[in-house]
Each structure stands twice: as C-alpha cells, then as structure tokens.
Amino acid sequence: MKVSELQDIKQRYKIVGNCASLNHALDVALQVAPTDLSVLIVGESGVGKEVIPRVIHDSSPRRRGKYFAINCGSIPEGTIDSELFGHVKGSFTGAIGDSPGYFGAADKGTLFLDEVGELPLATQARLLRVLETGEYIPVGATDVRKTDVRVVAATNVNMQRAISEGRFREDLYYRLNSIPIHMPPLRERGDDIPLLFRFFAMQMAEKYKMEKVVLTDGARTMLMKYKWPGNIRQLKNVTEQISILSPQREITPEVLSEFIPQDLETTQLVSMTHSGDSDHSFESEREILYKILYELRGHVNELTQEIAELKKKLNATANTPAVAPPAQNYLPRVTEDAEAEEYVEPNNSLNLEAIEKQMLIKALERNNGNRKKAAEELGYSDRTLYRRLKQYGLEDY
User: Fold this and answer.
1) Mean pLDDT on 26-34
2) How far apart are CA 259 and CA 211, in angstroms?
3) Burial 232-270 (b: 16+ CB within 10 A, else e)
4) Which single residue of 4, 62, 137, 192 has CA 20 to 30 Å from 164?
C-alpha cells in the first residue's frame, strides 16, 4: 500500500501513529476488505480494535450495506441468541413480535462481533453454522433462513487457552481466524504515545475552549516509559484529566506523576504482587473454609438449643397435669438436653472436630504460640480457646 493511501485512511478515521505494527494491521485490513473472508482481530483491551472492522467494511463491496457493531460480552446469555439470530412472536416472554436479529438485519452487510471470546458455547455452535452455510434458525422458529453477512470478530482473550479449557470451540476459532490481524499494545508503539497525547490534548482544548497542555522533554520520556495497561483508552483518560485538573499547562514529570502510577514499569492498573500458578498456595483459602464451617456448626448448635428449649416450654404449657404423674415421669430428658448442648450429625463426613483442631494449630503456629493473638484471630474468648485446647489435647502449644 502506498504511503499516501495509508495517510488518507488515518486522516479519515482519525488514526494517530506511525509505528510499523500499526501500519501493517491497516495494510492487512485494506488487502482483505474486497474479499468475504472472516477476520479475527486480536489485541489487548483499549488498543483500538474497533477501527479495523470499520475500515474493512467501508473499503469493501458491502460498504452500501448495513454495519453493526455488537459487544458480545455485554448481552445477557439468556437473550444473546435472540439478539443475534432473531425470534418469532411468542417464542418467549416479552417476544411481542418477530425480530430478524442482527444476522437478518445485516444481510448484504457486515457484522462486527467484539469480545467474541465471551460467547456461550451454544451460541458458538449457531455462529459456526451461519458462517459455514449462511443458514440460521431464529429462536422459536422451525424454518431455516438465509443471510449473506461478512463477519469481523475481535477478542482480547487468549484463544488457545480458552480452547484448551473448553470455553471456545476450536472449529469456530479456525473459521473466524481466516485472516488474523494483531493490534499492537500502546507500550510497543514508541513515539506514537506522545503523538496521541498531543492529539487528545488538542481535542480537549478545542472542545472546552482552553489552553492546550504540552509536555516537557522529561515528561515525554516519562510518558513513554510507562507501560499503559489500559492502552489508548487509558492514555486518553489521563490526558483529559490533566487538561481539566492541572493548573499548569506545561506538564513536567512532577505534574505527570500525579496522574499515572509511580511505578513507571508496571503493566498493572494498580500495583500488586503476582506469583506464578506453580507457587500459588491454597492454604489460606482452606483455613477460611475451615473457619466458615466451624462457625456454621456453631449457628446450628445455637439453633438446636433454642428449638429444644421452645419444645420444652410448649410441652410444659400444653401438658400441665391436674394430678402429679408418677415420679418416674419427672426424669430429665437427658437425650434431648444432650443434643441441645451440642449437635453433631452422626457420621459427619466433614469431621468438624478435626477441622477445628487443625485451625487451632495453624492459628497458634502463625502467632508463634501466642494464645491471646490466636484467640483474637479466631474470634474466640481466652476462656473458649483454653477450653478448646484442653479438649483437643493441645495444652502444650
């Protein structure tokens, strides 16, 4: 593609930047536009994937047809089939009339399926059929309908991982991925970063009739060192914040540091510690579960005691004898009181005593044997902790 053609495309769609990977993505989009091949655009969230399908549609023979952009991740699973493939009147509650769906309405046009990796598996099967045959059945209908739609999809999901985890159909992936286009993250676009900052600053100045903010050399370097996990969307937000909130119109590193994280090398929106799956421990999660289970047992015991006491009061009220019954009838209900004192279901597979004992040991170990701190962590009183330690033979801890 000639440089003049590339610049025309960028001006038309307000695409800012000159990095090689961006130019390559636009070049591929223009080459594939005259065909009907499916295109899969891959890239991180916020890199500007949505501009590519618009370029493809407007440069294709379908440009006079309709163009729809659908965010698959924003449509509830229960209605997405109806949204995409339509429905007939009465097919479900609220279906007061027939609907052609996007595939029906976009006949002879283009559909952009953003976040296609979020589609439910059942919808993926329907999508595969319409891509292969051009046929689909609306929800509640029995007749097969035809459509001629060009599909361009985009995702920020690792599709190979999604396939291996059973979340995405492999056959659909290869059908969508006839022509792959990779959109580069902002951190790989080098000098495009200050160019985009200047572009967004100019937009803000023109829109709100204010003086444009400009970067010093130090701020420009700082801007390019930051990794921009939110990509272009994040850079635009930061530029807008600076334009509105900064009293200084010449932006120095000191001013810029107030609007982006101090860790310039981070790729996270919030500084956080990360470790690989191989180093992950589920110890804390297990201990939390132990504690929840034990507290649940405590609630069951309390409820059982209240029920037993209520039953005794009701029996005493309803069965007050006029003449005192034989003395043996006044024997205490040892079994019921024992159950009320502490209820433990027979053959309890969870073995709550063992769980509580393990929880006690772990709490003591974490607190270097300090019983007071262990009791506070478990939510026990000192007296309860002592009683439990004695019960489980842990007095020496």
Assistant:
1) 96
2) 19
3) bebbbebbbebbeebeeeebebebbeeebeeeeebeeee
4) 137
